[in-house]
Amino acid sequence: LNFITEELKNPYKNLPLAILIGIPLVTVCYIFVNIAYFTVMTPIELLQSSAVAVTFGDRVLYPLSWVVPLFVVFSTFGAANGSCFTAGRLTYVAGREGHMVRFLSYISVK
């Protein structure tokens, strides 16, 4: 998010707010997911599993275990979307600021 602050509305307020909400939220979710893994699965199952989340889904969400790989796909597409958007902005700004060739900063409105 800090690479595309020009795209934010009111970045001086929204960027710190996104950081202060996002990082603790992701940390808490990560801790709860790990607690769930250790509660449901034995350490031997965790070590032998090739995909712990899928094994967890098979055990807990048996009829809906296909949801776990689906959310992994959604996460992958979300990360790819963010990377493409950020890479384009970085190239544009680097061209505009003179760090790369100037024509990279040209934008077509059409």
Automatic annotation (TrEMBL):
Gene Ontology CC: membrane
Record Gene3D superfamilies: Amino acid/polyamine transporter I (1.20.1740.10)
Subcellular location field: Membrane
Top-level lineage group: Eukaryota
Transmembrane segments: 17-40, 60-80
Main location: membrane
InterPro entries: AA/rel_permease1, AminoAcid_Transporter
GO MF term set: L-amino acid transmembrane transporter activity
Keywords of this entry: Membrane, Transmembrane, Transmembrane helix
Keyword Flavoprotein set for record: no
Record membrane topology: Multi-pass membrane protein
Name of the protein: Solute carrier family 7 member 9
